Amino acid sequence: MTPNPPTSTYRLQLQPEFPFAAAERAVPYLAGLGVSHLHLSPVLEAVPGSTHGYDVTDHRSVRAELGGEEGLRSLAATARARGLGLVVDLVPNHMAASPRHNHALRAVLREGPDSPFARWFDIDWRAGDGRVLLPVLPARLPEVRDRFRVADGSLHLDGQEFPLRAGTGDLPLDELLDAQWYRLGWWRLARTELDYRRFFTVSELIGVRVEDPEVFAASHAKIVELVADGVIEGLRIDHPDGLADPQGYLEDLAEATGGRCWTVVEKILTGAETLPAAWPVAGTTGYDALRRVDGVLTDPVGADELADVYREFVGKAGDRGGRWEATASRAAYEVVTHDLAAETAALTRIAGRVCAADPALRDHAPWALRTAIRELLVRVPVYRPYRTGGEEVLTPEAARGAKAAFAVPEEASAVDAVRALALGALGDGPEHRAFRARFAQTSSALRAKSVEDTAFYRYTPLLSANEVGGDAGRPAVPVEEFHAYCLRIARDWPATGTVLSTHDTKRSADVRAAIAVLAQCPEVWAELLTEVAGVPAPDPHVAWTAWQTAFGFGAPDPDRLGPAILKSVREAGLRTSWTEPDAEYERAVAEFAAAGPGRIPLRTASEAAFALEPHIRAHALGALLAQLTMPGVPELYQNTEREYRALVDPDNRAPFAAGEDDDRTALVRAALRLRRAHPEAFGPGGTYVPLAAEGPAAAHCLAFARSGRAITAVTRLSLRLAQAGGWQDTELVLPEGRWADALDGVREFTGGPATEVKLAELFAERPVALLVRVG
To answer: What is the 3-state secondary structure (H, E, C) of 704-764?
Structure first.
């Protein structure tokens, strides 16, 4: 990690509508907010018109549509003049699989496996007929054959362009197609026939082999140059779990940048999983912090009650049984069998070659190897195994469970072979290393697709818990667990990232705050559903999900709610999906969304619902202040310094736009300026001390001190607190000294053993308090 990590970052989504010049104009405002660094979405060349930049096409240049390298350097200079640095999102795992725009892929398709760029991609040239499958055709080849044309040395179809192998341009069409190093195929073939590694199940993004030293050097030269020149001071590493060897990559990156960068990784940690200690990074991008902040402000008793209401309401329309663990397990089997069929086929081919070459492993049938691979993959409890600790992920218990899927016990020995291969216990040859890497890469894709993109849309009692890195089956986090997490982070990863909203969160923090309050009043939610029952829905599952989404969003907006609801039913895959859409069902969903959630203002539909607004505000402010002052480097997603309601992408990726300040903007400024003025108190070397309230409502206060410099106190479960009679005589003992209210600059409190502060007084103005030491 850099000796001086950021004190806070502000994420900007760059796109043609918001290029470097627009970001430059926002610098004075952002500097005044108190951040120390701007965090930019990917800046390297991408597919023209891309609104996100993760579809990289050329690592050698800064994206021209954003203003090119000159624009980036100008932004860096303007930021530096205001005391700000730049953090950039780096995408090492994949590129756009676009022959027209990806120069490296274009060379491979033109020249075949002998191309110097062939080493860039995980292409299995031994699969199929020895050509790369490009699943890009809108229909079967015979149906589009007459639309091909050859011009300017390329093959063209409906706006797509493909390079031609030398000497083939004058051949008759059928011969020309057969003569290429690639095979054009119907897009549906990707699921089972794909022979290159991709990003998750997105065939339009092809995996990059940055484990190859030459590929790493070529694909990182520009970024390394910008770091050396001081243009870039920090890096966010996108999806490291997709890499063959994340630790090796990060070590190469640290060496290439000379350790001058604050580097965090988009690593999703599951449950109590911790970041590998050997990784040379400052920490994660912060989804682990998001889960703890959201969870500590969620009512565990009410969440369980809400789950019971959900199961009764949804019935058979939801996933069978309505239990999280069963839903996640079924989703994993579906994804590994269906969506990742090409990936398991690739693993089966590699395992078959290893077994065929080893006398001790021969005669494992391909189907047995495939079954063993599938059964072990679905039992990986985290995203993937790494260099060390693999035995803790692929346990003997997991192997026994996998063997139970075999009807013939003798065939189950394939599980032992596959497990040993995945753990690197059978040798270190090229094929052995390839299997181990691809197994881990497929494991991460399976976890992401089955949990984040399927089960989170099928099991929806409390949507605020269904967030990246979250645990839908355990939405609440005890206060003691939150403090334990913060103490560990302060000790082990003090410069890790923390977030509440990102470009990938399914719902912004404000939307989640409103939904989470429903766990404090399941009966109110049940009444609301009864009140809107007159709006016919296609089924109870979509009704529950759509109305809860609308409640969190807070205002009727069919243009934004409609697409989010439609995406949710496609991701769930219960009645329709992206690849097998049910047009009639989707039309019914769209009509329901427009007539109900997109039209009815649910938060003001009844007096009981309207009465929740103060408690929604308490949750939102509490989460924000906790994130801004807990251990780690807080990131603000664009526009979240004020109320920000956004749904799943692309809704949450609209360009930055200045807006009017609200009550949270003052809180953000106070916290960020405090962190910037006293980095020693909040960064590496700073301390975290939990503070416990005393009295009848003690459980409703979350409080901690940072290095004797600042105190954070927030209200937990304010609705339950009000129902129980308020703070009454509950008190909080502050550390010794005089403490000023950083949010109003007027009130002062005295700390010490005999000077308890009444929480009713501390929270008299607002449901949160940020105190700073006087003197």
So the answer is: EEECCCEEEEEECCHHHHHHCCCCCCCEECCCCEEEEECCCCCCEEEECCCCCEEHHHHCC
Helical (H) or strand (E) element with 542: helix 540-553
Contacts of residue 113, Cβ cutoff 8 Å, sequence gap at least 6: 123, 125, 181
Angle between helices 509-517 and 613-629 (to 10 degrees): 130
Distance CA 591, CA 596 (A): 8
Q: Tell me, what amino acid is at 120?
A: W
pLDDT over 50 (residue 1): no
244-294 pLDDT, tens digit each: 999 999 999 999 999 899 999 999 999 999 999 999 999 999 999 999 999
Provide the whole-model pTM.
0.96
Residue 89: strand pairing partners:
236
Distance, in Å, from the CA atom of 176 to the CA atom of 507, rounded to the nearest integer, reads: 49
* Measured distance CA(472)–CA(457) in Å, rounded: 10
Q: Answer yes or no: are the C-beta atoms of 269 and 275 closer than 8 Å.
A: yes
For 4-34, b/e burial (b = at least 16 CB within 10 A) is ebbbbbbbbbbbeebbbebbbebbeebbebb
Residue 6: HSE in the Cβ half-sphere, 13 Å Cα cutoff? 37
Pairing mode of beta strands 748-751, 710-715 = unpaired
User: Tokens in use for 280?
Assistant: 């040379």
CA 629 from chain center: how many Å? 22
Q: Convert the pLDDT of each residue in 151-173 to its tens digit.
A: 999 999 999 999 999 999 999 99
Residues 6+ away with beta carbon under 8 Å from 465? 294, 295, 298, 303, 471, 472, 475, 516
